[in-house]
Amino acid sequence: MSQTKSNIALGVASAAFALTLYSHFSSQTNIEAAQVKQHQSSVNTRQVSNEPAHVNEASKSNSYDEMDSSALIARIEYLEERLLDIENQAYGNGGNSDVMEEAILAVLEEKERKERQKRNEDNPVYGFYEDLPKDYDLKLKTDPEFASKISQDLKGKVLDQTLTPQERLSAMGQLQMNMYILNRTQDEMFDYETVDAVLEISRNSADDKLKVQALEVVAHSPVVDSRIAKSLQDIIEKEPNKYMKTMAAEGLMGQYYQAGESNPEMKQQLANEILAMYDNATSSDVQAVMQRLIRDGELLEQIRRDAGR
Q: What are the start and end residues of every segment in region (Disordered) (predicted)?
């Protein structure tokens, strides 16, 4: 659009310049005409035999005047037509500008879509965030039917083995978030069955990234169940990946903390299993993982008391 404005300015300037030239040459022609008249007066005293030459010179001067005026007027008319063409082109580019803007927006939207898809692939557990409505939290808290339906749909996706692991993990991440928003640790939609389905993804996936992300979901799950604790213990003892060992150990400690006063029997059982791995002399890796987690002497003493030792 700046180029069009420049062209319009150039056209206007050219027209103004042409008008200036026209005025200049008109003045110059008048001067020359006066000079011719003066010359005519001076030669009136000459012989009649000289009159053909005088008439011929005056005729040339008039012809020159008419020629310059016509050329300048034609030039001005051309510049005016050119200026009109530039203005029409500028108005026409307004429509083209709208088309160009739409094309640019389409490219940006496609770029954003691909970036969002890549983010979802890189971290499927939290890929749902960008698609949530702004009032999602409030609606969960104020509309029980909405919250129940959403949770039911999400649980169905977690358990649906026809979906991709990424889709199932995303559904689990959203379901777990819903429970935190509603301040619930578990209910009929968020239970051992859903957590175990995610554990299966971690156990069976050939994608190391999915294995890790699925285990992270389980390790931070608020669902307390002895079967979950046993699965985490198996990972600590058998998984060669040190990060996954550590993550499973954190999940086991989380099960112990959350058992609290609500399930003293399970808490005692978990305390004994944690101490057994902490003191494990047969596996230095398992022992090192647990000892890194339990560095506090007071925490160790608390676990021993909960174990009944």
A: 36-66
Per-residue pLDDT tens digits for 217-271: 999 888 889 999 999 999 999 999 999 999 999 999 999 999 887 788 999 999 9
Question: Partners of 190 in the beta sheet?
Answer: 187
How far apart CA 276 and CA 283 sit, in angstroms, is 11
pLDDT tens digits for range 166-204:
899 989 989 988 888 888 766 667 789 999 999 999 998
Gap between the Cα atoms of 201 and 166, Å rounded: 10
Helical ranges in 123-189 per DSSP H: 136-142, 144-159, 165-181
Q: Is 103 exposed, middle or buried (0-12, 13-18, 19+ CB in 10 A)?
A: exposed
Measured CA to CA in angstroms, residue 150 lies from 25, 53, 116 at distances of: 86, 109, 22
Taking the mean position of all CA atoms in its chain, how far away is CA 75? 54
Cα-Cα-Cα-Cα dihedral sign, residues 191, 192, 197, 201: positive
Cα angle 99-101-102, degrees, rounded to a multiple of 5: 65
